[in-house]
Write a structure and sequence with these properties.
heterodimer, A: mainly alpha, Histone, subunit A, 2 strands, B: mainly alpha, two-stranded antiparallel sheet, 14 helices, about 55% helix, transcription (chain A), activator (chain A), transcription regulation (chain A), TFIID_TAF13 (chain A), transcription coactivator activity (chain A)
Chain lengths: ~325, ~325
């Protein structure tokens, strides 16, 4: 069987065999993350290994491209600007990164306030100050890059996200049925992300083959992008898995095409679709990646840069 | 497995030492034999010519080592597999991508009940050459190549290039790669025939959904927008769970969508034909970027699509009549 084979070749591949055995591995964390994102209670080990491979390859490829951008700029480190530059094509993803940066700023501001025990400043206000550096960095860069005004508008959207609101409500409904132990477990796995283990993440990433190294903000963004990649992989693999089941009537066809069925759900499945059985397997992930790259391969000119499309850029 | 690998290397080393300079001829002949361009007997004759008299057994040892390593000689070929070969040899045109059965033939020593019609083929596990050769080419069985077949094929090429061995990882990668490539070709054909949706601008899914609400009708406009905007992304900031709809909601929305789509379904399409394949490869040239592969396959497709005209059939009939007349046989 296909145990430790390489995933689709990119310009740089990382096989689990090439890296020494003592190397850090995120496989157990990945298993919890996949559970929180919609896989079964215990995701398969080889699935998590494959996901780790894919995420690592994608991040290294992104870093290589960002490194080229940074050296063009004449900078000595890879900074947030280089990564934002890579993401310029997809506005939705860029908007989400900006939101994430806002969130991190807010969090560091809160922590600073807690340390200083400064009672005068309201925790809710986002007053401009020295502690908004990430946001200002991003905004300065976007202003520089922007020619049609489309990027600047991304940063200004402050309205309540209706989708997020809906999700919060559903989560509340879903967790009503859980007992305390299940709930604790679920919360644990939801909170887990690459950002929580920053030093391990940096070791795992292993930027030794790059000429320029990323700075701390860039590494933060990369850990966020790593989580996004895992989420995207789980989504796409679940879609592939659900398409593999036999559907008898047109209604279940439409349901299967419109909604992704996540496994974390304890309610009964949508009426006419078969309940998902078993965890995500490596073959689903491979098929998902193949399909994601399909338009990239078909449309690739012989002289264009080869390698896989980025899942989060 | 490791024991086999080292046996193979020893056998290969003995062989190359015995042959000396003409090793390239030997590899060329090996390749021809694998592609079934020459038979085993001719290969043996060539080997006898290249090797000095007392070292001919190296040739046999080497072949034995390859076949053992690839587990081709040890196994009994499955009954249905060989039956299929018999029937496929008589049929002329089947597009290559159509039959994609699972390639994992089980190599246990099971007793397979044989169809009495094909009882003339004796299956003995210890018989070298013969049956295994017949089953070697994927183009005959129309199944994905088994791991053993791929391994043998890769080794032939590796030896030709002067390399020593092929690792297990490489074989696994090629197994994946073959499947990946065929699926890409199939996706190219299917995306030209059926509708599909695109998620995130990159990921095609829901092939064959005939449900598209008509956007120019007022009551269907919301349903149309619901489809064309991709479903909300699952995880933005780390604390967000995946969204989930209740089954009733999902069913209701699905029925609404079905109601808003047009009342005439498109006519069912005929099965994928060579014309579809030809067109897909022409339009999506990037599916087979290598020019050698592309040109070769396009030629094969065009040859398959050829059909004799009425004049040619008439000429053929006349020719047969003449031949029959010469031999004094009754006209067919």
């Amino acid at each position: 069987q296909v145990g430790k084979s390489d995933v689709m070749a990119g310009s740089v591949t990382s096989s689990s065999k090439e890296r020494p055995a003592s190397r850090t591995s995120f496989i157990p964390e990945l298993q919890s993350m996949m559970f929180a994102l919609g896989d079964t209670r215990r995701p398969l080990y080889e699935t998590a290994a494959l996901v780790e491979d894919i995420v690592h390859t994608q991040l290294i490829n992104m870093l290589h491209q960002a490194c080229e951008g940074a050296s063009l700029r004449g900078s000595r480190v890879i900074s947030a600007e280089d990564i934002l530059f890579l993401m310029r094509r997809d506005k939705k993803k860029l908007a989400r990164v900006l939101k994430y940066l806002q969130f991190r700023d807010y969090k560091s501001k809160l922590l600073k306030n807690l340390e200083e025990e400064d009672v005068q400043q309201e925790p809710g206000g986002l007053a401009a100050g020295g502690n908004q550096r990430r946001q200002r960095l991003a905004q300065d860069f976007l202003a520089w890059m922007d020619q049609t005004g489309e990027f600047l508008s991304l940063a200004e959207k402050q309205e309540v996200d209706p989708v997020k609101q809906e999700r919060m409500e559903r989560l509340e409904r879903h967790t009503r049925n859980m007992d305390p132990a299940q709930y604790a477990e679920f919360c644990e796995s939801r909170q887990l992300s690459f950002a929580k283990k920053a030093s391990k993440f940096r070791d795992w990433l292993d930027c030794s083959s790059l000429e320029l190294k990323p700075n701390s903000i860039a590494t933060e963004i990369l850990s966020y992008l790593a989580y996004e990649t895992v989420a995207q992989i789980v989504d796409l693999s679940l879609l592939v898995k659900q398409e593999m089941t036999v559907k008898n009537n047109p209604v279940s066809h439409v349901i299967s095409a419109s909604y992704i069925h996540y496994n974390t759900h304890t309610e009964s499945s949508p009426a006419t679709v078969e309940p998902p059985s078993g965890a995500i397997q490596p073959c689903h992930i491979r098929e998902a990646i193949r399909r994601y790259n399909y338009r990239h391969t078909v449309g690739t000119h012989a002289y264009r840069r080869s390698g896989m499309a980025f899942l989060t850029c | 497995m490791a024991a086999h690998a080292s046996e193979l290397e020893i056998a290969k080393k003995n062989l190359t030492n015995a042959i000396g300079d003409n090793v390239k001829h030997y590899w060329a002949n090996l390749k021809l034999w694998f592609k079934q361009k020459i038979s085993k007997e001719e290969f043996d004759v060539e080997a006898r010519r290249l090797l000095p008299q007392e070292n001919v057994h190296f040739h046999n040892d080497f072949l034995l080592a390859i076949l053992t390593r690839c587990q081709i000689i040890v196994s009994t070929p499955e009954g249905p597999g060989s039956l299929q070969w018999q029937s496929c040899a008589s049929k002329s045109d089947k597009s290559k991508g159509k039959k994609k059965c699972s390639s994992r033939q089980k190599f246990d020593h099971r007793f397979q009940p044989q169809n009495p019609l094909f009882g003339a083929q004796p299956f003995s596990p210890r018989e070298a050459g013969g049956e295994e050769e017949e089953l070697r080419l994927s183009a005959h069985t129309l199944l994905l190549p088994t791991r053993g077949q791929l391994e043998a094929r890769m080794m032939v090429t590796a030896f030709e290039m002067g390399l020593d061995n092929v690792t297990e990882d490489a074989i696994s990668t090629v197994v994946c790669a073959v499947e990946h490539h065929l699926k890409d070709v199939l996706t190219a054909v299917i995306t030209r025939r059926k509708a599909y949706r695109l998620r995130d601008g990159h990921f095609p899914y829901a092939f064959g959904t005939d449900v598209t609400p008509r956007p120019y009708l007022k009551n269907s406009l919301s349903a149309y927008h619901g489809i064309s905007e991709c479903p909300p992304p699952s995880a933005s900031l780390a604390a967000c769970p995946p969204p989930q709809v209740s089954p009733d909601d999902a069913e209701q929305k699905a029925i609404h969508l079905l109601a808003c789509s047009s009342d005439t379904l498109p006519a069912p399409l005929p099965p994928i034909s060579m014309f579809d394949l030809l067109e897909a490869l022409k339009v999506h040239r990037g599916v087979m970027p290598s020019h050698t592969m592309y040109a070769l396959n396009m030629e094969r497709i065009l040859v398959q699509l050829w059909h004799p005209s009425h004049e040619e059939l008439e000429q053929d009939r006349i020719h047969r009549q003449r031949l029959a007349g010469k031999e004094g046989m009754p006209v067919s």
